[in-house]
Specification:
This protein is an alpha+beta fold. The chain has four helices and seven strands. The chain has a single domain, classed as Gcn5-related N-acetyltransferase (GNAT) (Aminopeptidase, 3-Layer(aba) Sandwich), CATH 3.40.630.30. The chain has a seven-stranded mixed beta sheet with strand order 1-2-3-4-5-7-6, with helices on both faces.
Length: 179
């Protein structure tokens, strides 16, 4: 069932062995796996974290997946994420695992390994212009595997030119005169 990204973040932080919060602006939606009325797992989907995979919103990424160990919950969540991405018109959905993780849940949900031996550039803290820093985590230095389900080819979109509304033009002119 759907859940808020904030609740999903809390669940991930409480049960996942190495992941922390997803940076703001990345999560598009979150899903919860439930048994009775108890949440047993969550998945968060959004923009790809690797800019090389970010094709303007046509590729989505499972950014976090965490469960309490309930049997088949990971495969169920991965399948639900893929079905939701496909229904939303995505061209494909991807996720990453550590190379030493088996991937049985992914294979069980119909995902295919696209690449392995991927090195992360998140290997040390670095300051950003806005003062953010990357918290070092042990798994950053471990090689990753990228898994995917492809639904269709990426299409090039023609976006119509949009003229600003007259009121916006007046507002911009007023600010320019004041400044």
């Amino acid at each position: 069932m759907p859940c808020t990204p904030a609740k999903a973040q809390e669940f991930v932080e409480s049960v996942h062995r190495h992941h922390g919060k997803v940076p703001g602006g990345y999560v598009f939606w979150a899903l919860a796996a439930v048994s009775g009325s108890t949440v047993v797992g969550v998945a968060m989907v959004g923009r790809p974290t690797n800019r090389n995979s970010d094709d303007g919103g046509q590729t989505l990424e499972v950014l976090r997946l965490a469960t309490d160990g309930t049997r088949n919950a990971p495969s169920m969540l991965l399948g639900a994420c893929a079905r939701t991405a496909r229904a939303a018109g995505a061209s494909r959905i991807i996720t990453y695992t550590l190379e030493d993780e088996g991937g049985a849940s992914l294979r069980g949900a119909g995902w295919n390994m696209e690449a392995n031996g991927i090195k992360s550039w998140w290997t040390h803290p670095s300051g950003a212009a806005d003062g953010r820093t990357v918290k070092p985590r042990a798994h950053y230095s471990k090689p990753k595997c990228r898994w995917a389900i492809k639904f269709r080819d990426v299409c090039v979109l023609d976006w119509p030119a949009v003229e600003p509304e007259e009121s916006l033009q007046v507002g911009m002119l007023f600010r320019a005169v004041e400044g």
